[in-house]
Amino acid sequence: MSELPLRAQLAAALGKGAASLSRATGRGDGSVIGGRIALKVEPNLLAELARGRRIALVSATNGKTTTTRLIASALREIGEIATNEHGANMPTGHITALANHPKARIGVLETDEKYLPQVLRETNAVVVVLMNLSRDQMDRASEINLLAKKWRDALANSQAHVVANADDPLVAWAGLGAPHATWVAAGQRWKEDSWCCPECGGHLKREPDPHWECPECGLRRPHTTWSVNTAADTVTDPQGVEHKLQLRLPGDANRSNAAIALATAAAYGIRPEQALPRIRQIESVAGRYTSIVTRGVEVRLLLAKNPAGWLESFAVLDPPRVPVILSVNAQVPDGRDTSWLWDVDYTVLRGRRVFVMGERRTDLALRLETDEVAFEVADSVEQVLTRLKAEQPDITKVDVIANYTAFQQIRTAYGRVQ
Amino acid sequence: MSDTSSTLRIVWIYPDLLSTYGDQGNVLVLRRRAELRGIPTEVVRVHSSDPVPVEGDIYLLGGGEDRPQILAAQRLRADGGLKRAAERGAAVFAVCAGYQIIGETYGDDAANPLPGVGILDVRSGRGDTRAVGEIVADVDPALGVGRITGFENHQGRTSVGPSAKPLSTTVLGIGNDGATEGAYQGQVLGTYLHGPALPRNPALADLLLRWRVGDIQPLPPSWGERLHDERLAAVL
Ligand SMILES: [Zn+2]
């Protein structure tokens, strides 16, 4: 990161939390703090702001923004929470979140996978929440085996209590490095990145699902005390009590996220009976799962950034008579490489009305043609609606699955819906 | 495995170790382009714990991270099936990490290179910079494939020995060394065009099919050709 954006981001953080910051660092009265001083202060700023607070870090490839939101809402049972709910998940975002809530004794911080070791060290977090690791934007992201190794080493050097998904072998292996852990059977739909043992490279034995073990070195799925039953829509706690979830957020991935959130809340002494009414209130997270009603049609927006995310999105699609629009870009935040489209199985879309759009819609078109899924090419959501309304004046619903910038473009077109 | 000699047997080597990003695309497009011509196909996925069958027609190897790459090379060498299949005249299409390990040597440590499967006369080491981005190259005219387009993401540098030939001349990107991209030797072909190299280059997929089944009828241009042309126009 160059100096200027860093300074700018820090200045923003300092501006918002100036008074609290000057107390936290003892370096000024707030009025003189600007970018120049902020940069000098920066090396210890996160540690200073985190001191004395019970911080939870939340990391994963998918679902970290949503799970952070679920955990924060559950922990509000205790009091004020400092959290980066808009997904600014690197240290400057953590500084802003903590500076904005100087009185909060608890912080819940979504943390970028790469930054987890550093942020764990600096914040001395008491809880680290880990859900899943899978391939994501490989033109710039770290190799995930390497990432898991860094997590494992960082956790081994901390006193943090891990709350982690035992069903994801890479995550479990990382979490097994920690001195204390709560294991959650949270499920794993995408398995293509975990056929091999993270410890020795052996081919994992993965049945009966969700059990897994390595026949070569003996690494195995840890014993779980919490579990999600997606079909029954329940979470079972360590006492064996089943709790009905009844979330407003759709899909099995969010049931898993909720199970992790309930286990994390329990680590802070909040019982599921207290946490559930709070997490049930949440119906959309930073525009994800939002519905726009336009021209009498409910258009639901699903964000999917990588193969595992697309798989989860397909699982929450409405019944087959509801048309779906797929939109893909390949800008820097999306990853410049569209190769991942070939890791997703699109055959589940056969028989559904499918539209492709976005800057890389030709890639999508070839991908669907290869999977023998019929599709139509479109320029915009509005154009699709015009076409559909002409044929079917009583149409009421359309789903949209888009990757990052494609999703933001659609959201912006409808006024940055939350 | 089927014993009908008319069935095209596509063998996907170690998808558990070597399938980083879109490698499945090569399998899907080969199968589709064969079946559109009425050639029945069978896809065999070989896990790293399983023996490699020797009676396949086209063997595919994908990309992988450093450690899986080393494991895959060790297992393929110990197994011997891929080498025997290549000696029997099977076609081999290997991408990125897979390309490196079917060569003579590969690995990060120039002083201590690791042995490959040895079915393609190339040697790979580690470059100073990572090659990430769109790549364009002109294939050896003897192969009748023309200009290819893809995405590369690797730190390897590869030199082509006397028994093999460079697959292509690099137009954009790095490939082997900034001058050439990929290599071939008989019906064994390696490339740094990772992931869906065959979907993005239908002519390359058809080359592999011709190697195994002889003359094949042309297919009407479709989305593969359109994507190929669109990517070339976008990056050149
Ligand atoms: Zn093992």
Q: Main sheet of chain B: which strands, in order across?
A: 2-1-3-4-11-10-9-7-8
Model regions low in confidence, pLDDT < 50 over at least 5 residues of chain B: none
Tell me about the largest β-sheet of chain A. Answer: 9 strands, mixed
How many helices of chain A? The count is 14
The order of strands across the largest sheet of chain A is 2-3-1-4-5-6-7-8-9
Helix/strand/pairing category of chain A: alpha/beta
Q: Which regions of chain A contain 5 or more consecutive residues with pLDDT less than 50?
A: 1-5, 26-39
Q: Which value, in Å, is the CA radius of gyration of chain A?
A: 22 Å
Portion in helices of chain A: 25-40%
Portion in beta strands of chain A: 15-25%
CA(first)-CA(last) distance of chain B: 44 Å
What's the level 1 CATH class of the largest domain in chain A?
Alpha Beta
